[in-house]
Amino acid sequence: MDVGVLGALQVSVDGTSVVPTAPKPRALLALLAFNMDQVVPSRTICDELWGETPPKSAATTLQTYILQLRRTIAGELSPLAPDTARAKQLLTTRGKGYVLVGEGGECDVAEFDRLASAGMRRSEEGDSQAASELLRRATDLWYGEVLVDVETGPVLETEIMRLKERRRIVVESRVQIDLALGRHNSVVDELSALAVRDRTHEGLHGQLMLAQYRCGRRTHALQTFHRLRTSLLNELGLEPSPWLHRLQQMILDTDPVLASEEYRLVSC
């Protein structure tokens, strides 16, 4: 079984998609896929599907959704003679919960976590080239917003927020490494796009300012600072942090330190 959640929901068995169209069974499958090969308690599933106000029939309805998912899997795998036994092996009851059995298949979120952790270790070991490659491979696994086509509840929303934050940390770490490797030309456009999406993120804007300055775009770097300051004041009523003001002054002064690959932004 292969699972993808770093974009639209993808769950396939032997190359055949088994994703249902109905919203609740789809959300149920997404939660099980997110936790492939792990027991998801029935209580957690009910929290995801109905939040704090589950219906009195929640337990029975959940069993119905499980049966619907198994029928979908069985029917997609063998349309002429649904393979119910295989479907029960793939979506199995265990204790007071359910498990989506991966059978050694691929799961993009698990691979993202593996590559990100490996990249961070290489960075700590001082192997910047390998760290950059691993972290880039981790973020390249994303093909959209997490579970963009699923009506998510509170449990999945929490997981999605965790993933987004981890991805942000991975991107910032990889960009910082690339800047130290002198790759400012290769990251400046990426940082520009990220800054547009997150207008008040100081770390990204600081990295963008440094990359623009090193690319010979001093005016653009100063404009980036002013756009950030305007957004922070308008949306949060805050001034940029002192380190960003210092970076702005260094750019105004054409401080030679900024051209050195040894220079590090203090926020990253």
UniProtKB/TrEMBL annotation:
Residues that span the membrane, as ranges: none
CDD domains hit by this protein: BTAD
Gene Ontology biological-process annotations: phosphorelay signal transduction system; regulation of DNA-templated transcription
Top-level taxon in the UniProt lineage: Bacteria
Annotated InterPro entries: AfsR-DnrI-RedD_regulator (IPR051677), BTAD (IPR005158), OmpR/PhoB-type_DNA-bd (IPR001867), Sig_transdc_resp-reg_C-effctor (IPR016032), TPR-like_helical_dom_sf (IPR011990), WH-like_DNA-bd_sf (IPR036388)
The keyword Transcription is annotated on this UniProt entry: yes
GO molecular function: DNA binding
UniProt DNA-binding region: 1-102
Keywords, alphabetical: DNA-binding, Transcription, Transcription regulation, Two-component regulatory system
Plastid in keyword set: no
Family: Belongs to the AfsR/DnrI/RedD regulatory family.
Record's protein name: AfsR/SARP family transcriptional regulator
The organism of origin for this protein: Streptomyces boncukensis
